[in-house]
Amino acid sequence: MGLGLYLIYFAILLIVPLWAQSRVKNAYKKYSKVASSSGMPGVEVARKILHDNGIYDVKVEETRGHLTDHYDPRSKTIRLSSHNYHGNSIAGAAIAAHEVGHAIQDDQAYAFLRFRHALVPFASIGSNMSFFLIFAGLIFGASNLILIGIIFMAAAVLFQLVTLPVEFDASSRAMDQVISLGIINNNEERETKKVLNAAALTYVAAAAVAVAELMRFILIYLGNRD
Fold first, then answer.
1. Per-residue pLDDT tens for 24-66?
2. Buried-state track 111-137, b at ≥16 Cβ within 10 A, e below 16
């Protein structure tokens, strides 16, 4: 790998994730201080969207931490961090709606979400085993081990790539819901989109890093074969 490619690789590996995290933190910090026009706390936003979509078997719970919000499909539970659970900010409403977007995907058997769930065990094994196999192959000069490690890593990368349409679709559903249900007004659409877009960048950054890692090891493998 030439110097130029190494510089691009390290830029993707180090700068892109930091930039994405900075965008999320700045957007959230700004709009978590701006109350939504509806004044609804995150827990009410989540429940309203769920019930409006005929979903009554999903719980909404408070969880510890900062920006630890997520949807757990196994227990059918939306967990919102304390500030978003109790707060009535634009950022909190956007994040709560996004997590409900995942619950709606689950309820409607959204294909990419199902595919991502199916990939979880393979991605987990791939993440845990790939580097061990690749580095063992490099140490012992065993190209076959490197190739197997790359195949395992590819499963983890595929999971990251499939995550992108899942997250973007959840954000799209979130925007539709908060607008149609009057949770935000027309003047707040731009701010809500900023929060959702910033959050989506973290997944784009993660996917970019995963692809860069995979390409690096593919080039190493090909170089060892020459």
1. 999 999 999 999 999 999 999 999 999 999 999 999 999 999 9
2. ebbeebeebeeebeebbebbeebbeeb
Structure token pair of residue 22: 């900075």
DSSP for 49-71 reads: HHHHTT--S-EEEEESSSS--EE
Task: In whole angstroms, give the CA distance from residue 220 to residue 8.
Answer: 16
B/e letters for 73-85, b = 16+ CB within 10 Å, e = fewer, are beeebbbbbebbb
Active centre residues (catalytic): 99
Q: Mind listing the pLDDT tens digit for each residue in 76-97? A: 999 999 999 999 999 999 999 9
Which among 112, 217, 100 has a CA at the least distance from the CA of 160? 112
Q: Which of 21, 46, 28 is nearest to 90 (CA)?
A: 28
Q: Which amino acid is at 145?
A: L
Domain ranges of the chain: 3-225
Alpha helices in the chain, H assignment, sequence order: 3-10, 16-31, 42-52, 82-86, 90-107, 111-140, 143-180, 189-225
Question: Both tokens of residue 43?
Answer: 């827990």
